[in-house]
Amino acid sequence: MLLPVIFGGVLGAGWLVLDQTRGQTYRHLRKLDMEGLRLKKLHGPFLFLLDKFEVGRRLPVLMFRMQHAIQKMYGIQHSGEKTMLYCAEMLTYSWLMLLVGCLLSLVGDIGLGGMVGGLALGVALPFALYKDLNTKVQRRDQDILMELPELLNRIVLLVGAGETVQRAIIHCVASQGERDHPLYNELRKTVGNWNNGYSFQQSFEQFSRRCGVQEVTIFTTTVLLNFRRGGGDFVLALRDLSHVLWEKRKAVSRAKGEQASSKLVFPMVLIFFSIVVMIGAPAFMMMNM
What we know:
mainly alpha, Type II secretion protein F, transmembrane helix, membrane, transmembrane
């Protein structure tokens, strides 16, 4: 029982020392707006450790992927700092799980099993957080891809009726009100850039970069190449792109349907075996009688 005491004491004392000596340097990062972080007050020592061991240089591929995902979810601004905060959140959960494991080893009758369980959770939770981030990004990309053909159809109709591309996009955004959708959230930022003096080309390129979806990049490239021409050529180019995007939307819908049906297989198997047991148990009981 001495090992959990020593290990837990080292974890707790080490965090206190680092928080008092180095944690103050990173207090300004707590002001960054980033949803999903619940343990910001505990991040200081882990941010110091991430800087000290130069995790970004030692694990460049992992950090690049994480930063790219965070840029999609939380914006390009301060994406490097937000990536460090997310890594610190992972380490904080691992530290807490190790402390909980040490406490369980002390108060329960499980011995070192508590420490082993805490270590297992401390390793598994960061992977779970990383996977959750990637799942959110995939869901966001799918939402954008599913809504993009609808937006393009509205733009084609409005441009065909005599509106400019810029006015058509503004009208599409206004018609959605305050709807919380990643595509329209990025378009609202684009409209705000127009109102602040950015050119149409600059704003649309930034819109494509923020979305980070290949189909949006094709859409913005088509618009930027053809919007100066106007007339029938522009509308025809948008209609051809709309047909391609609708096909991709159908493919995404089919993939979602297949995923949903595969998830139902296991519950259906459980229900089947439950019914078999319910029907077969009385028959076996009668045979034994």
